[in-house]
Design brief:
With 234 residues, this protein is α/β, with parallel strands linked by helices. Bound molecules: cytidine-5'-monophosphate.
């Protein structure tokens, strides 16, 4: 597809930011923790705002945090956020609530609000693959030896690591394919923690774009330490 046709695609980004951050044990939810003077969520929104191919951004938030997020968007001059919608109990529901708010789009990009080190070029790479393949995600190959253990942490077997990837965001899907996957999901719900999982289990082929190990998801206390170190060397 030529650059002109790619530029004519309408791409809406969804940023699920309704997590409670309980694993971090912090009082401030992970997406609001400040790195280099800006909340983690604002780092993500700032990058998406700068990607020309993205025309709109929808954020899902806990009801009690909707106003804080609207204020952040204003204070940090994020231009493309069209809606802040209420999130759900699970991340997939938060994404779906935002998806339901899209009025018209050719492609949907989903990016976690707690992955602040995403770069514009990585976003564009996944968008290009999403447009070529209909569905694409960022992921990194597994480099450690992988063991499967029982509930007492006794190793049962080794898992061949060739072909194993750790899924990240951004993830980009054709609006129609994701819409169809949701319709099928409603008839036959599947266990999936991300939208790629929903699409794969419904039979869609999803392309992997190799991402960066620096695109960490801030989940635990040690992730936060790592995030401060990454921020310091950028
Ligand atoms: O909890 P998890 O690590 O999967 O969170 C990934 C992203 O999903 C975070 O940005 C978090 O705010 C968001 N999330 C959400 N709604 C939930 C749970 C998580 O929007 N119910």
């Amino acid at each position: 597809m030529g650059a002109a046709s790619i530029n004519s695609m309408r791409i809406t980004a969804i940023v699920p930011a309704a997590g409670r951050g309980t694993r971090l044990g912090a009082t401030v939810p992970k997406q609001f923790i400040e790195l280099e003077g800006r909340p983690v969520l604002v780092h993500c929104l700032g990058v998406l705002d700068n990607v020309e191919l993205i025309s709109a951004i929808i954020v899902s938030a806990s009801q009690s945090e909707t106003e804080i997020i609207r204020k952040m968007i204003k204070d940090f001059c994020i231009k493309k956020v069209t809606d802040v919608v209420e999130g759900g109990k699970e991340r997939t529901q938060s994404v779906r609530n935002a998806f339901n708010r899209i009025s018209s789009a050719d492609y949907v990009l989903i990016h976690d609000a707690v992955r602040p080190f995403i770069t514009e070029s990585a976003v564009v790479d996944v968008i290009h693959a999403g447009i070529s393949y209909g569905a694409a995600i960022s992921a990194v190959p597994v480099t450690d030896t992988v063991k499967f253990a029982d509930k007492d942490n006794i190793i049962v077997k080794n898992i061949e690591r060739n072909g194993l990837w750790l899924a990240q965001t951004p993830q980009v899907f054709s609006y129609d394919l994701l819409s169809e996957a949701y319709r099928m999901y409603d008839r036959n719900p599947v266990e999936a923690t991300d939208e790629s999982g929903i699409m794969e289990l419904q039979g869609t082929k999803v392309k992997i774009v190799q991402g960066s190990i620096f695109n960490i998801k801030i989940t635990t206390e040690s992730d936060l330490i790592l995030a401060k170190l990454i921020a310091g060397i950028r």
